[in-house]
């Protein structure tokens, strides 16, 4: 930033610094309250844990920036996880326990995610139904489907297959586990697409004014459809990372992930009404959400009954911090 | 000839009610929550199995089985059973006590037999038969096992369920049982009977406490998450994890002598079958079945695990 442009950046500053400030405050508070907080193990735990919601939230950033919403991602993840486990288990007798089975499982997850995202997108763009309603509907459908697939119980991955697949969650390069690496790659790609491609700018244009975007020859429906399809694909990727962790899926899998992803996007400074999106902000949002839970577990500061209240207060505070700058401007 | 035929018809028509009286069909309504988590899935399975078995055994009994995904749906189900099937008995596992009390009371007023399972109604005296698990006992058995498994004392962490009366009763029972036994509870957090939540909570317990001797996961779904976290952290200070409720995969591991899962405490979802069977006996025989039937929580060890292993159940 140059000195000449000083007044303008000062106005933006708070919205940029707000989420970072909240994150730094949390980290400092954590380090003061528990010496293990900044330990390597805890840091990698928190990052790996953030990866599921984080990967999904990057996709959600694009959907929300383009003025949409997707409530179905949590149950979609549960359904894909269930489907993946069923397919892999059924292939064990014919293909044996080996890497090919896992690759097929991964392909199933990606295809199912893409298909589910496309379905949401087509219903929203081609039939012109409200995104809220379409995805509320598909949220219920996928949640029921996974319960049905699991016969009300839990789907568990074949034990030997699980041992083979486990390194995808627990293993990694130089102590950095795969979920963290994949999360980082998704974030970097997302940031590039949002900032430096026509697609990213089109999302923002549609979100801020659909009519104007249409007259400016932006192919509104196609861009929208792509955001939902990409989100579906990312849900598939997140599921690929999720399944090896505990090797199971049930109707409780992915519960409320959609709200956590949406909250992370908003905390990060993306506008809920659309028109402006920030991928790196979303990452900060996800980290803030995960850190709150982590901190509450690491300290005996408050009664566990109040965890939800603390979480809620910090979410609102993080948003207030960044809105503060705008209010003064 | 024509008159003769119609005469026969009238005679038959007159005889019909008398015949029906002898083998009068009685209808038993069964209303339970839908299979939204592992334990409920098992409960649904055992309810269906009991209904199938009893319909075969007693031709004079008819069953209506309805599963509800929320309390309002369950109230509708019960109203429909009374209105359209005129049920003689109702076996109900209430979703929540408060909203179901009024509707069940109305069924009682219609003269039907009422069997309440697991969760009591908020008003006494409505049910004829009450079948339930023993929550304080569930905690007590777990606590006694902990004390006995670690005679020299030890440090444990506890994962609790969803904050409810059930969870409170279990934890109180547990704490009473370990009192004065030199067992130090380092920390307690809610894992909400959920694998993922339990995984996260356990990871944080592991970061926070360098030495943990044992874990009371208090539920087998949570035990799965706890075991995942311990395995990932590569910690070998934890000697065992005590779950609960008797999930088949966990009972199997106990049966096979897995040192990490040396025991289990039952809270059988099959209690719904007990309730349906007792109600059916009350309908078809003069045997008295009214009162309270509390199913004790039993300690499962490698010696008796086979008795509690149901490979066909989803739970």
TrEMBL record, chain A:
Superkingdom of origin organism: Bacteria
TM regions (residue ranges): 12-34, 46-64, 71-91, 97-119, 131-150, 170-193, 225-243, 255-272, 279-296, 302-321
Membrane topology: Multi-pass membrane protein
CDD domains in alphabetical order: TM_PBP1_transp_AraH_like
Gene Ontology annotations for the cellular component aspect, listed alphabetically: plasma membrane
GO MF annotation list: transmembrane transporter activity
Xref: PANTHER family: ABC TRANSPORTER PERMEASE PROTEIN YPHD-RELATED-RELATED, RIBOSE IMPORT PERMEASE PROTEIN RBSC
Name of the protein described by the UniProt record: ABC transporter permease
Species this chain originates from: Paracoccus sediminis
Subcellular location as annotated: Cell membrane
Keywords linked to the UniProt accession: Cell membrane, Membrane, Transmembrane, Transmembrane helix
TrEMBL record, chain B:
Subcellular localization: Cell envelope
Annotated InterPro entries: Peripla_BP_I, SBP_2_dom
Periplasmic binding protein domain: residues covered: 28-274
Keywords tagged on the record: Signal
GO MF, one annotated term: carbohydrate binding
Signal peptide: 1-20
A cellular component annotation (GO) from this entry: cell envelope
Pfam families: Peripla_BP_4
Family in the record: Belongs to the bacterial solute-binding protein 2 family.
Protein name: ABC transporter substrate-binding protein
Species: Paracoccus sediminis
């Amino acid at each position: 930033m140059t000195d000449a442009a000083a007044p303008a950046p000062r106005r933006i500053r708070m919205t940029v610094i707000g989420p970072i400030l909240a994150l730094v405050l949390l980290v400092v508070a954590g380090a003061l309250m528990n010496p293990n907080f900044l330990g390597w193990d805890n840091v990698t735990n928190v990052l790996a844990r953030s990866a599921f919601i984080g990967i999904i939230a990057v996709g959600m950033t694009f959907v929300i920036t383009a003025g949409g919403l997707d409530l179905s991602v949590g149950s979609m993840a549960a359904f894909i996880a269930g489907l993946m486990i069923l397919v892999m288990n059924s292939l064990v007798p014919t293909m044996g326990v080996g890497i090919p089975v896992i690759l097929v499982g991964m392909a199933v997850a990606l295809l199912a995610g893409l298909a589910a995202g496309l379905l949401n997108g087509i219903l929203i763009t081609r039939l012109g139904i409200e995104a809220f309603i379409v995805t509320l509907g598909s949220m219920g459908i996928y949640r029921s489907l996974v319960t049905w697939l699991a016969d009300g119980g839990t789907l568990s991955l074949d034990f030997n297959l699980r041992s083979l697949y486990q390194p995808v969650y627990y293993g990694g390069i130089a102590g950095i586990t795969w979920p963290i690496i994949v999360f980082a790659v998704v974030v970097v790609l997302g940031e590039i697409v949002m900032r430096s491609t026509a697609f990213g700018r089109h999302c923002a244009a549609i979100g801020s004014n659909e009519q104007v975007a249409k007259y400016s020859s932006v192919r509104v429906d196609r861009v929208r459809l792509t955001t939902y399809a990409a989100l579906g694909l990312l849900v598939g990727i997140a599921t690929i990372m999720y399944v090896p962790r505990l090797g199971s899926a049930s109707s409780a899998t992915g519960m409320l992930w959609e709200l956590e992803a949406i909250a992370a996007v908003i905390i990060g400074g993306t506008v809920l009404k659309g028109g402006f999106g920030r991928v790196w902000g979303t990452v900060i949002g996800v980290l803030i959400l995960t850190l709150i839970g982590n901190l509450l577990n690491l300290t005996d500061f408050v009664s566990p009954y109040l965890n939800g209240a603390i979480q809620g207060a910090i979410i609102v505070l993080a948003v207030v911090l960044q809105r503060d700058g705008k209010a003064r401007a | 000839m024509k008159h003769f035929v119609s005469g026969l018809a009238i005679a038959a028509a007159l005889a019909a009610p008398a015949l029906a009286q002898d083998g009068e069909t009685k209808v038993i309504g069964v209303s339970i929550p839908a299979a939204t988590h592992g334990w409920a899935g098992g409960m649904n399975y055992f309810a269906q199995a009991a209904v199938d078995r009893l319909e075969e055994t007693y031709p004079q009994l008819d069953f209506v089985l309805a599963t509800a995904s929320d309390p309002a749906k369950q109230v509708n189900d019960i109203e429909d059973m009374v209105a359209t099937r005129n049920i003689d008995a109702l076996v109900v596992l209430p979703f929540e006590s408060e909203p179901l009390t009024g509707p069940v009371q109305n069924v009682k007023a219609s003269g039907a037999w009422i069997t309440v399972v697991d969760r009591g109604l908020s008003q006494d005296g409505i049910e004829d038969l009450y079948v339930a698990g023993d929550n304080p006992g569930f905690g007590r058995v777990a606590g006694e096992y902990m004390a006995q498994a670690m005679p020299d004392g030890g440090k444990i962490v506890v994962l609790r369920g969803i904050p409810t009366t059930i969870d409170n009763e279990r934890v109180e029972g547990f704490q009473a049982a370990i009192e004065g036994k030199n067992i130090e509870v380092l920390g307690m957090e809610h894992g909400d009977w959920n694998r993922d939540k339990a995984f996260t909570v356990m990871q944080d317990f592991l970061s926070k406490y360098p030495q943990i001797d044992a874990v009371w996961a208090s539920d087998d779904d949570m035990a799965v998450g706890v075991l995942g976290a311990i395995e990932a952290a590569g910690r070998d200070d934890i000697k065992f994890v005590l779950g609960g409720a008797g999930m088949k995969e966990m009972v199997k591991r106990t049966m096979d002598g897995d040192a990490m899962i040396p025991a289990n405490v039952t809270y059988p979802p099959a209690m719904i079958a007990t309730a349906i069977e007792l109600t059916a006996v009350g309908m078809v025989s003069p045997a008295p079945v009214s009162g309270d039937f509390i199913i004790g929580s039993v300690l499962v060890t490698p010696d008796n695990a086979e008795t509690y292993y149901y490979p066909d159940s989803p739970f």
